[in-house]
Amino acid sequence: MQKAIQNALAQQKTEYQSLLEKQKADFQSQMVQQTKKIPPPVPPKNMEQLLDTYESANPFLDTLTSTREEIMRVVAKAYGPPPKPQKPEKLQSSRIDRLESKINEIGQMTSK
Prior knowledge:
The protein is mainly alpha-helical and 112 residues long. Helices cover 72% and strands 0% of the residues.
């Protein structure tokens, strides 16, 4: 009876060991696959980078008779016009007006 229990425990131990080894191998293969993943490309920041991306992605560009200006037009059409400045002149002039009014107030306070 005791020998049968020991045999059952030994068999169970070997089964668990083989299962553990299998899980370790699966985990290691998953880790290897994770390191092979390529990060997503960084979007271009300006029109020149867009053009460079377009030129590098098009292997037949040398065979085409397109000029750089034509390609820029295609890129601008695909991605829209170049971005406009963040701060319009109207906001800048209103800030200048506020600064001038504060300077005048300070000047009046110091002259009294």
